[in-house]
């Protein structure tokens, strides 16, 4: 499991590796520890179904073994429970099973579906993906202005307007990102009522 562990250790999403035969968790990354609000050592050796509230465990066990028999990715929205009793929604995406040293393992990605995590995803997209496009537009227009446009021409005026629009877009991205971060700070705990 060395290669797989090293690939998933730094993932943003919670990742678990479970023994396909027993259903016991043999590896969890730091994101899994944060999601479950428990140290990694508290996750290793647990049955994968023990991540769910007791009433959901029979279905989770059944789905786990179905996933282990499948040769394609599967998704399932579930409820998980922390040691302190907080119930959260998560989306499980199972990867194909793999074998190592004569044993079969399943890898599952757990995506936190709580509102706070969705805000984090939105903030990331705004602050990285959208901003990258705005910066590219601004950079290209500045190149045009410096190398291809005659000073005082109509093209220069258009390029100046395009630069201003890109700058305005960057300002809007900054405002939305700041609002998202403020909302995240005042959000209620990750608790989902039944």
Care to describe what's here?
- The chain has helices spanning 2-8, 30-36, 57-69, 115-147, 154-186; strands spanning 14-19, 25-28, 74-81, 87-94, 98-100, 103-112.
- It has two domains: 2-113, Beta-Lactamase; 116-186.
- Strands 1, 2, 3, 4, 5 and 6 form a six-stranded antiparallel beta sheet that branches.
- It is an alpha+beta fold and 194 residues long.
- Mean pLDDT is 81; it is low at 186-194.
- Helices cover 48% and strands 20% of the residues.
- The radius of gyration is 23 Å and the shape is elongated.
Distance between the termini: 37 Å
The CATH superfamily of the largest domain appears as PAS domain
Q: Which overall shape is indicated by the principal axes computed on the Cα atoms?
A: elongated
Structural class: alpha+beta
CATH class of the largest domain: Alpha Beta
- Give the CATH topology of the largest domain: Beta-Lactamase
Strand content: 15-25%
Calculate Rg over CA atoms: 23 Å
- Tell me the domain tally: 2
Number of strands: 6
In DSSP terms, counting alpha (H) and pi (I) runs of 4 or more, how many helices?
Answer: 5
Main beta sheet: 6 strands, antiparallel
């Amino acid at each position: 499991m060395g290669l797989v562990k090293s690939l998933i250790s730094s993932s943003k999403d919670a990742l678990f590796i479970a023994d396909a035969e027993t259903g016991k968790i043999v590896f969890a990354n730091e994101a899994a520890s944060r999601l479950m609000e428990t140290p990694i050592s508290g996750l290793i050796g647990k049955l994968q179904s023990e991540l769910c509230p007791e009433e959901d465990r029979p279905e989770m066990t059944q789905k786990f073994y179905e996933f282990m028999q499948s040769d394609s990715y599967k998704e399932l929205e579930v409820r998980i429970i922390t040691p302190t009793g907080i119930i959260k929604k998560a989306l499980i995406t199972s990867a194909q099973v793999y074998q190592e040293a004569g044993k079969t393992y399943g890898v599952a990605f757990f995506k936190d579906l709580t509102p706070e995590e969705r805000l984090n995803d939105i903030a990331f997209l705004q602050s990285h993906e959208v901003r990258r496009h705005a910066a590219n537009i601004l950079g290209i227009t500045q190149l045009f202005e410096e190398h291809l446009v005659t000073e005082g021409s109509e093209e220069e005026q258009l390029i100046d307007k395009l630069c201003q629009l890109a700058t305005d877009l960057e300002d809007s991205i900054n405002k939305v990102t700041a609002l998202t971060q403020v909302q995240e700070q005042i959000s209620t705990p990750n608790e989902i009522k039944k």
